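Reopening this one. Same input as before:
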Amino acid sequence: MLRRRRRSILLAVLILATGFITGKLIIDSTDTSMAARDTVSQSSPLPKATSSTQVRTPSERQEPQASLPPVVDKGKGEWDYAKPDDDAGTIGHDGTLLKFKVAAEKGIHADVDKFSEAVAETLSDKRGWTASDDWRFQHTDDDWADFTIYLASPQTRKTMCGGDTYTSCRSGNNVVINMERWIEGVPHWKGPLASYRQYVVNHEVGHRLGEQHVVCPKKGELSPVMAQQTLEMRGCKENAWPYVDDEYVTGPSGEYN
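Same output, byte for byte:
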């Protein structure tokens, strides 16, 4: 009887001891697992802060925004005329002399003198229309001139030439540069805004000289200046000049729709 009681007591002690050890192992295993998760969490890089605000750097093709006037849809229909420089002289060496005036519409926040400088630089470039020795140009402020280059608001451009308010145009002796294009260029022109301005002056003056529209001769080649690059490129590369490497750049007759 005494042996049975001792045996029962010993068995109970063993059961209690086993339960304590098992419980301890379960608790230790749980703590270790939690510690491991904490370690992974602390060693993993923290998510980087994100922001919906994008910093945009100025495009190479645009002037600093502060220097660009706002686009005015309709100006006053009156003009400021630029005075030629006293020492400007004649542009080109041979060919027919054409005298031109330069004007900017009032009410469109345009600096007529800066516009005139850009026009003169374009016409004076050795890649311009004088490269053929067929033409010479001279800026004048006389009442009479062979043609006038106007910087006009989109609505005034439409009044002067008819048609749309998007492109620039030429009507008779009026070479009309659309102020909106002068300020904004066109999206598909990948070069600087200054080169687009050179293109549009050469293109519209080219019409005054009797040049007609042509189209891209072959994908990947330079576009002729008389192609309607304001509308599209047709696979050609943008080009502001009639002559490149002393060669006239042209293509098949035609227009872009």
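So the earlier flakiness isn't reproducible anymore. For the record, The helical segments are 2-43, 112-124, 154-161, 179-184, 193-208.
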